[in-house]
Each structure stands twice: as C-alpha cells, then as structure tokens.
Amino acid sequence: VLLRRMTDSELNADVERLWHDRSLWILRNDCPVVQGPRGGRRLAWLGNLFEDTQDVIYRDLGETYVRWMLDVAVHRDDYCYFPFMQGFRVMAPDPPPTGWTATWMGWMIQGTTSFHRATGSQPAFELASKLARYMKDHGGVIAQDGTFLAGHGSGKGPTVHFHHDANALEGLAEFGLLTGDGEYLDFVRQG
Fold first, then answer.
1. Is the pLDDT of residue 77 over 60?
2. Which of 167, 190, 176 is nearest to 106 (CA)?
3. In which region does residue 13 sit, left (phi positive, over 0), alpha (psi from -120 to 50) or beta (all else)?
4. In angstroms, rounded to a whole number, what is the distance separating the alpha carbons of residues 146 and 31?
C-alpha cells in the first residue's frame, strides 16, 4: 500500500489484493493480535486504507479492533498495558511486562496513533495515550536519560536489542508529534 502510494505503480496489484482480502478475513474471524508488529501494523494499514478510500468498512473494523484491545488491556491510573495472553484468554495480568517484553507495545503505539490520525478515532487516541504513558514511565525500555535498557539473553550474555528499543522511541515520537506534547518529544530526544 505504501509503495503504491509513492509510485502509483500497479505492479503486483493482484498479489496486494490477495493480501488485502486475507488480512481482512483474519481481522474479522481470527484472534486479534495485541503484541508485536502485526497488531500495530494492521491498525496502521486499516487507517491508510480508510484515508485512501474513505470506505467506512476499514474505519469500523479498526474501531472494533481497538475497542477489543481496550477491553483486554490492564488499566492502571493513567496508563495501560497488555497482559500475557494465549488466544483470547488473559493468562497473567500481573506483573506488567517490562524491558524486552514491553518493547512489543511500541508497534501498538504506532498503530493506534496512525489509526487515530487517519480516522479521528477517540478510542484509538485513548489507547495510544495510555500505552505511550506506560511505555515512557513504566515499561523499563528506555531510561529517563535516554539509555536503552531492553534486551534479552544471547550466547554472549545480555544484549540490548536496538531496533526494539528504537521502535518504542519511534512510537513515542509519533504520539508526541500527533499531540504536540513536549514531554514525549523531549523524552524521545534524550534517546
């Protein structure tokens, strides 16, 4: 979709159509994904399609997805996070994910921010706001001085996983740019 926007090329439009149809089927019939790239990217994709076509099917499907995520999220004060899940079942609402596990929410911040920007969805804005607050203040991904913290073990000991930490920063940057909130923008500049 993004490449087509940039080039206006119709090359492989038939393949794109198959991916489109399959992705819509998954969103309508399968377990929504709240962790990792797929969940956030699917929301951004639905927002892009709505922006391109103004077809409310994309907006409405995204709204349903966002509302489901709001229901699944564990809400605390002014933030929320996604618990460990298996299918539709919450396996462990506490403790909240931190470090490496929390980095996966960076994609969700990007997706909900993008979907809100494209559709004006208030539930998406609420979710983006609460996830961004969690990531910044409670996720243990980036220290207040901008140091990357989140990593995982390797054959040579613990390692910081740059693209996961950077992706969390990117999600916070997109949210900060959308809202104009200097608190997030300053935090991102530190990283």
1. yes
2. 167
3. alpha
4. 35
Q: Is the pLDDT of residue 24 over 60?
A: yes
Structure tokens given for 182: 């200097």
Q: pTM, whole model, 2 decimals?
A: 0.85
Tens of pLDDT, residue by residue over 44-61, are 999 999 999 999 999 999
Which ranges of the chain does DSSP label H, i.e. alpha helix? Answer: 2-7, 13-29, 37-53, 56-72, 100-103, 105-119, 122-137, 162-179, 182-190
CA dist., res. 183 & res. 132, Å (int): 11
Instruction: Report how far residue 147's alpha carbon sits from residue 182's, in angstroms, rounded to the nearest whole number.
Output: 19
At residue 82, the pLDDT reads 86
3-state secondary structure 108-131: HHHHHHHHHHHHCCHHHHHHHHHH
